[in-house]
Amino acid sequence: MSRLVFEDLVLEYEVEEGAVRCVDGVQLQVPEGKVTALIGESGSGKTTLSNAVLRLLAPNARVRRGRILVDGVDVLGLSPEEVRRFRWHRASLVFQAAQSAFNPTLTLGEQLRDAVADHGQDPEQAPFPERIRELLGMVRLDPARVLPAWPHQLSGGMRQRVAIAMALVLHPQILILDEPTTALDLITQSYVQDILQEVHRTTGVTMLFITHDLAAVARLADFVGVMYGGRLVEFAPAESVLRHPRHPYSRALLASVPRVDGRGGTRARGALRTPDLLHPPQGCNFAPGCPRATERCVRERPVLEDGVACFLPEVDS
Amino acid sequence: MSPVLSLRDVHVEFPLSGGRVLRAVQGVDLEIPEGGIVTLVGESGCGKSTLGKVLLGVLPPTRGTVHFGEVQLWARGFRWTRELRLQVQVVHQDSYASLNPVHRVQTILGGPLRAHGLVKGAQEAGRAVRELLERVGLTPADYFAAKHPFQLSGGQRQRVALARALMLRPRLILADEPVSGVDASVRLSILELMKELNREEGIAFAYITHDLATARFFGAGHPMGVMYLGRLVEWGEVGALLDRPRHPYLKALLAALPPPDPLQARQVGPLPLKSLDLPDATRPPSGCPFHPRCLLAEARCEAGDPPALLDGVACHLAQAR
Predict the structure, then answer these.
(1) Mean per-residue pLDDT for B110-124?
(2) What are the tens digits of pLDDT across the range B49-91?
């Protein structure tokens, strides 16, 4: 059984012009104890989808349909108090730009202890002092240096690592990371990837991470989900998606990313268009830009079947 | 052909409290050919943006010379002329911060045209702005001219920023991380537009980035410099440098960026570096600035002057081979 399950989830943002359908019928069992990467362009719904797990949705967000199950319980039905207990205990989130997510007026030690105290535990009592030191060690930081330090005294990469350690302090089974390496330098990115690999190996936590960075996906992910216009269009083992993407959109997306070896950076004309989320089409939302689209694709919406939501998936070339 | 911009032995130093000095740029020689492209890569704090300010003419070097065409900037008796000012334009990283939020695109682009007396009256300015918006792919132009920056996407704002740089018909555009703030799929179209402007309008580009993949995408076939702690440590054609790096620093950067193939990426070992952290720029190491992190460093790397950039690389060991 999967610990984290999205059941036909539909989320919309209410705006002046109508409703923006940012998550459109996502159906997914996130593989337990594995690393799953979600890729897709800005606006494809990946951040909304992952924020929804922690019930961190904007006030104008509406759940139109579906459930998010964590250990069989629908997160969307929790009371505010239950949500508070759920966060950090069951699932944690490391925000995008977590380097700037700390309170600048408190030391990192105070903030780590606050996180524990806020969940009804005494940070001064066993096992917490030891737990905090152990986690900082796991992200290769020296507790003696980090705990008394103010956020500005550490580099961005170090703060990012503290954020990862902090997210793990109450032993969540699910760790969600939104763009964990994006704002960092190349060498630091590689180092944070190392650390995430080790965190996963040591804790066996179910990791869901959102990224644009294909090198990080290749290195860390066991599974990859590709999102387009709020829909999950492909979900398969990382090796399969990265080497032989089957959805025409996945293929266009992967081919568009410039690579240091000079490959990539090709753009099928019109393929990478943004879908109209105010008026989601009846059929496949990629059909207007798809080189293979047929009349059926415009009429009928493909469901995710055998890892791909497409009537005419690419066969391996 | 004479270069549009050339730097000779340029140093930039910032005095700090306690008598310390931050040497942000040290001994850089650089030429940007007319209509050419030069790419500068390096990590945060390597001095690439400071060097960009020297290229842009907004920061006088502490030492060394800067020539724009035949004119030596900052020489005795040098005065900025309007004509000279217009010849170098800039596209910044953060288009949200670099475009005035209270103005519409029409004013953002038309204002400078009128301020510099390049158009007469509002009607002519309106026409010029529409032409420009079409040139950078923001159509229908009337629709975009009426927008405020916050009503545009990051990619669209960056196109407005490019239009603004383009508008005064510069010889050189400095593009400092122009695409690092926009979505991966939009990056490509912005870089393609820059390539097109280079090719079709003959505008030279200085492209500053930390992203080696876009450096190759935009700058391939043209020279690239790799900066480390204020110095150029490697110089050569972009593709050749990335395929056959010679400086241990560039080798480490490339090792941190495996190709996006799971089979190769999972074999990545530890980075070929002794230490991950950049040394304190106010207390730079003796000898070669890279030696404290270099796995190959020998006794001669730790002492004396830093190795000079000879034959495209500033490394005693790479030069010996």
Answers:
(1) 89
(2) 899 999 999 999 999 999 999 999 999 999 999 889 899 999 9
Phi-psi map region of B274: left, alpha, beta (phi>0 left; psi -120 to 50 alpha): alpha
Chain B residue closest in CA terms to A272: B185
d(C-alpha A257, C-alpha A213), whole Å: 9
Using DSSP bridges, classify how beta strands A73-74 and A61-70 pair: parallel, antiparallel or unpaired.
antiparallel
Cβ–Cβ of A186/B260 closer than 8 Å?
Answer: no
Type of residue found at A273: R
Q: Does B188 touch chain A (CB under 8 A)?
A: yes
Residue A253's closest chain B neighbor by CA? B185
Query: Which tokens belong to A49?
Result: 């989808």
Give tens-digit pLDDT for A8-67: 999 999 998 899 999 999 999 999 999 999 998 888 899 999 999 999 999 999 999 999
Show the tokens assigned to B230.
Answer: 């204020």
* Three-state SS at A154: coil
CA distance B150 to chain A (A): 16
Give the B window 134-173 contacts with A, CB below 8 Å.
154
Cβ within 8 Å, pair B254-A243: no
User: What is the CA B163 to chain-centroid distance, rounded?
Assistant: 18
A45 neighbors A23 (Cβ within 8 angstroms): yes
User: Strands across the sheet with A223-228, in order?
Assistant: A91-94, A174-178, A206-210, A35-39, A223-228, A231-237
User: In this complex, do A257 and B184 lie within 8 Å of one another by their Cβ atoms?
Assistant: yes
ipTM of the complex as predicted: 0.82
DSSP string, B208-258: EES-HHHHHHHHTTSEEEEEETTEEEEEEEHHHHHHS--SHHHHHHHHTS-
Q: Model pTM?
A: 0.88
Q: A213 vs chain B: nearest CA distance in angstroms?
A: 9
Closest CB from A191, A219, A254 relative to B265: A219
pLDDT of residue A272: 61
A255: nearest CA in chain B?
Answer: B185
Is residue B107 helix, strand or coil? helix
Other beta carbons less than 10 A from residue B153's beta carbon: 15
The residue type of B26 is Q
Write the CA distances from B62 to B7, B66, B67, B73, B78, integer angstroms.
12, 11, 15, 13, 16
Q: By the CB < 8 Å criterion, does B217 face chain A? A: yes
| Alpha-carbon dihedral angle through residues A166, A169, A172, A176, given to the nearest 10 degrees | 10
Residues of chain A with C-beta less than 8 angstroms from the C-beta of B209: none
